[in-house]
Request: fold
Amino acid sequence: MSKQTKGSKLLKSVLKSKWYPGIFQWPTLIVFAIIMYELLIGIPVAHDNFGTAMTWVFWWPIIPIVFLMLGRFWCAICPFATLNDLIQKFVGNNRPVPKFLKKYGIWLIDIFFILITWADHVFGIVESPRGSGVLLFLIVTGVVISGAFFERRTWCRYLCFLGGLAGNYSRAGALELRGTPEKCAKCTVSACFRGSDKAPGCPMFEFPKTMDNNARCNLCGNCVKNCPNDSITITPRIPSKELWFIRKPKVEESFLAIVIMGIVFVQNITMLEIWGEAQKWLESVLGTNNYAVLFTVTFMIAMGIPVLMLYLTSWLASLSNKEPAKINFARFGYALIPLDLAGHIAHNLFHLLAEGKSVLYTALELFGIRVQNQSAALVGMDTITILQYTLLALGTLASIYAAYRIAKANYKAGQVTGSFIPYAVLVLILVAINIYLFMLPMAMRM
Reply:
């Protein structure tokens, strides 16, 4: 028996266990309750607040790494999802998902993600425990309302701002859950979707037996428990492989991929020393020193330029493959996901590794133990820089190769090069901007 087979069987046995995912859900929910208390009632200074450290120094940097290694595993144990399930159990009406959400949910997720990022910078949410607490409280309110009225995990599938990010990133993940076609073709029970006396149906409205992507599978294990034919497999795979063969590319998902790139740019820019000089220049151009106005303009430009670049690249590719630019935009936008993921992890790696000990220090303060004049860094800046550039290099190679495989899978031999080259150039331009920004000194959060 190969190591891969042994590993797959072990993963499957974990998902099939009656203890999963509860053994992870409840500790996570307890920690989340402590974080909420600290953010809303605890020390009002971000530097000393355990909730701030756990949310923005630990959780936010770790989450894209989890998506890469384990797909949407976090979504199986997320406290919002657990709360949703509890609300449904006791007061849920289980109404069908509104058609509006089914049609426009991903666009709402895109909008929510953009608005939350904008609000963070304008209102200083990350630097304010109370601001972070209010943001999480608003999300909790949305989860409670959604769980009380609608079936399954409507919030997670159609409204969660992290859901779109998770869906995109998990497509590049190193783990996949699938049904065995030969077994599923003969199945007439559909317990994987409907549920059984062993577990509820798929909370994300997926038919695991026909599922061909990771975007909405949260590895909750329900289908593994319910399947009467032992058809569901959990296997490792080459990261980003799924991106090569997207059957139904969606503009809204590719739009989110390129917008994330702009968001990473603006997050980097506003943490650099040159941001102060840039603000002064904008003040002179716009004739105002209102920070909300200055940042909004910067934010729109930072998101708009990558979107425009992707569209122009799609138009150039259309000269070769004769597809409309919109089709190319939707199809090749997925190729940017590995670079997105690499840039996101690289940016947040600075906070995790340069400020990681602040999680321990603020946790000790909960017990009256105060640590003073100690570095919060886990490793030196040289190590962080090497890791950041390594991640960007891997993300660049993965995105370029994904663009090549997408072109190869969809076009004739004479059209592949002309379709692929414009996107390869776009990826190189985007990574060059990332590298330049990472070369400049960043500010700390804690």
About this structure: The mean pLDDT is 92. DSSP finds 20 helices and two strands in the chain. The CA atoms of residues 36 and 375 lie 26 Å apart. The longest strand covers residues 175-178.
